[in-house]
Amino acid sequence: VQIAVPKETAPGERRVALTPEVVARLVKEGCAVRLEAGAGASAFFTDEAYRQAGAEVVPAEAVLEGAQVVLTVGPLEASALPRVSHEAILIGFQYPHRDPKRVEALADWGISTLAMELIPRITRAQSMDALSSQATVAGYRAALIAAQLSSRFFPMLTTAAGTIRPARVLVMGVGVAGLQAIATAKRLGANVWAYDVRKAAAEQALSLGAKVIELPISAEGEGGYARELTAEEQAMQLEALARQVGQMDVVITTAQIPGRRAPVLVTAEMVGRMAPGSVIVDLAAESGGNCELTRPGETVEAGGVRVAGPLNLPSELPVHASEMYAKNLYNLCKLLLKNGELAPDWSDEILAGALLTHRHEITHGPTRLLVG
Ligand code: NAD
User: Which residues form the Alanine dehydrogenase/pyridine nucleotide transhydrogenase NAD(H)-binding domain (predicted)?
Assistant: First the structure.
């Protein structure tokens, strides 16, 4: 099976779909891997390391030629499609809602597209779950950014120059990223609180040593995700959280609802209640932000409170983010192979769930609606 790894094209993207280690594993499974020269450079994987792992390193114009499987991190540009075989399988994050026209182009071309973000969050798919692996990176980075921007220490210190109390950190939205942010802030010595609308999340936060803020709102949705709150629930939530937020030195937010704008958990008024020198790191900046003042990709200051809305945090830790992502892809590729041949069972729950386009059709319902 011929696998291609083109260089990522999104501005600032430093990750690469395959690492030399995973290339070697795929070669052992009987695959041939062709990689665009320099594809791993910004993640510090050299062309030489890929060659040693058994990949063929080629110029951009040759990488997609004859590929049966194309592996990427972000979406392959529509302009590259003419170089991809109609029968190929394209695998990577696709962000269909950001550019439905691109999905239409994929369907028109006839290739099968697997969207990494659509892989079902079921036990059997855990090893392929790139949303989780990349959220782990994002949560860790978020806590470090918060510590970096903070005007205060995270740990408690007892020194000759006096005693410093630990920073008070609130993590709102305790999914994969939130849990990693909690764990990292705890390791730095902060006093950590957690808030989520799912009961299971509260238990996990407790087990990491965080204190849990409990409100009488339970919003378990489908597939382990949260559902959107009603207007009344939302108003009650904001009122109850306002006092808590006002007492924090650091707030890290990660709340998301699949396919929707991120819920607002921190209003401008709540930011106004925080002490000058406090910090908010909003991981939901990409989908509209959990804080009213968030500006995607920027750090703004309001009344002495810094509000950071970082984008694509996994790319800031490109070595490990790529390693984890490449292993997710490897496990998904294994599901497509049988005796070294490409033999996808499209009725498999994982493949069916992740399938975005197939045989000239958009196979993902919500995206089909977007395209109209
Ligand atoms: P996510 O990124 O979709 O959302 C982050 C968190 O925000 C979630 O915990 C969610 O409950 C919370 N949230 C949403 N609206 C909120 C609101 N108004 N107020 C407060 N919090 C709010 O979540 P995720 O990290 O992708 O995880 C989603 C689910 O998938 C979780 O249940 C997680 O445990 C589960 N999961 C399962 C597997 C598996 O079994 N294979 C793997 C990973 C994650």
Answer: 147-309
Q: Measuring from atom 13 of ligand 1, which residue has the nearest CA?
A: 255
Residue among 297, 307, 303 nearest 264 (CA): 307
Residue type, 179: L
Q: Ligand 1 centroid vs 145 CA: distance in angstroms?
A: 21
Q: Distance between CA atoms of 212 and 235, rounded to whole angstroms?
A: 20
DSSP 35-47: EETTTTGGGT--H
Entry pTM: 0.96
What is the ipTM metric for this complex?
0.96
Catalytic residue (one of 2, 42, 85, 121): 121
| Radius of gyration of the chain from its Cα atoms, rounded to whole angstroms | 22
Q: Where does the pLDDT of residue 217 fall: very low under 50, low under 70, confident under 90, or very high at 90 and above? A: confident
User: Which one of the listed residues 126, 148, 151, 247 is annotated catalytic?
Assistant: 126
Mean pLDDT of 362-369: 93
Which two structure tokens, joined as six digits, stand for 287?
A: 């989908």
Instruction: Provide the token pair at 114.
Output: 């697997």
